[in-house]
Amino acid sequence: MSLKDREWICPDCKTPHDRDINAAINVKKFSLLEQNLIIN
């Protein structure tokens, strides 16, 4: 997958995903984990 591909479909569950939204969710999650504000 190249960086120009903005959307992709999960091969397992067939759910469509947006790379930018997924990246934002991951950044938020890892920043909160780093500050011990959430437990994974």
Describe this structure in words.
This is Mobile element protein. Keywords: DNA-binding. GO terms for molecular function: DNA binding. Residues 4-27 form the Cas12f1-like TNB domain. InterPro entries: Cas12f1-like_TNB. By secondary structure, this protein is α+β, with helices and mostly antiparallel strands. The chain has one domain. Helix content is 40%, strand content 15%. It contains 1 helix and 2 strands, in the order ββα. The protein has one helix at residues 19-34, and strands at 7-9, 16-18. A two-stranded antiparallel ribbon has the order 1-2. Strand 1 (7-9) and strand 2 (16-18) form a beta hairpin. The protein is elongated. The N and C termini lie far apart (28 Å). 0% of the residues are buried.
Task: Give a quick summary of the entry.
With 40 residues, the protein is α+β, with helices and mostly antiparallel strands.
Question: What attributes characterize this protein structure?
Answer:
alpha+beta, two-stranded antiparallel sheet, 1 helix, elongated, 40 residues
Helix content percent band? 40-55%
> Which range does the strand content fall in?
15-25%
Give the domain tally: 1
Mean pLDDT: 86
Order of helices and strands: EEH
Helix/strand structural class: alpha+beta
**Distance N to C terminus:** 28 Å
Total number of beta strands: 2
The main pleated sheet reads as: 2 strands, antiparallel
What would the principal axes of the Cα set say about the shape? elongated
Major sheet strand order: 1-2
Give Rg in angstroms.
Answer: 13 Å
Q: Which stretches are poorly predicted, pLDDT < 50 over at least 5 residues?
A: none
Quickly count the helices: 1
Keywords: DNA-binding
GO molecular function: DNA binding
Pfam families: Cas12f1-like_TNB (PF07282)
Protein name: Mobile element protein
